[in-house]
Amino acid sequence: xxxxxxxxxxxxxxxxxxxxxxxxxxxxxxxxxxxxxxxxxxxxxxxxxxxxxxxxxxxxxxxxxxxxxxxxxxxxxxxxxxxxxxxxxxxxxxxxxxxxxxxxxxxxxxxxxxxxxxxxxxxxxxxxxxxxxxxxxxxxxxxxxxxxxxxxxxxxxxxxxxxxxxxxxxxxxxxxxxxxxxxxxxxxxxxxxxxxxxxxxxxxxxxxxxxxxxxxxxxxxxxxxxxxxxxxxxxxxxxxxxxxxxxxxxxxxxxxxxxxxxxxxxxxxxxxxxxxxxxxxxxxxxxxxxxxxxxxxxxxxxxxxxxxxxxxxxxxxxxxxxxxxxxxxxxxxxxxxxxxxxxxxxxxxxxxxxxxxxxxxxxxxxxxxxxxxxxxxxxxxxxxxxxxxxxxxxxxxxxxxxxxxxxxxxxxx
Length: 413
What we know:
single chain, mainly beta, five-stranded mixed β-sheet, 3% helix
């Protein structure tokens, strides 16, 4: 007896057997055949897909599986041809949250998962002649269990690919309203770990909280009252929730107000320190413009051997008669440095959190000044398999202020 299989699973309503009468055996006048047809009920079949889902430090879940196969008689492996896949991903938040994905390939990236939450993946495989077949249910815990404090704090001593990223604002803006109120608005980045709540704090120069707000991840603005135009403030976004490690890096930037008059002079709105100037008109101490010193600095690799830095326009804004009026930066200084190990000490990191720029002359590879209407710059001559840091300085008038850092790796991880 021999078992012969098709190389792939076929859907059939009937089977036709043709036996040749030309077959002859010496000494045998009669020929007897026995046929056994082995099939299966699709409802009772779960193909093997080698499903694997992992939590990634950069703030997403990665799911990957193989083309479905079946094991039949004699342990033969046959293909289960699949046209597309239906993947239902569910988890518990305030209630059951489910997302459905119709896919033609065997992978999925799920951005912004909720930290310390179990995600369930239900995979259905669509055979070209059958209904959807259950290809299995799988679970993954959305958390980075073995991350050290250096990686949770996104320190240079941790490899770039292991630095844990929580959701943080990608674009930030502030506008002065009538009186002493400021409206802060933000748009979150597309990747990063979410938490049940997020605190947004405005802290004055005496380290006193002016306002603390617990926001949901779908909130994108905050109204702050009674701010003084002769102070700078620290704006802090911090993840909140159970099992959030204390070492997680908070997102911190500067919120500042600058006094104005009926004639606002370009270059005299300083968003980190108050700059007083004289004008003939009477000044109103409640009039000011607001600025947040985070301009969404990003970097990317150009594979001709360059690093491209690009950012949003730095500007301080206020509303007058329902219209937003802005003063823009005069120019920028873009600096490229190569990160060579552990040169960033804890002291330097603390100074940076306090918005004090720390630059060692030996670290600087290139520094360029670009005009206020330029929002990108290319650095050439970079090495492969090296980590670089780009910093941006915004210039308003005669003053210079730190507007962000961005790290990038020039190799393949």
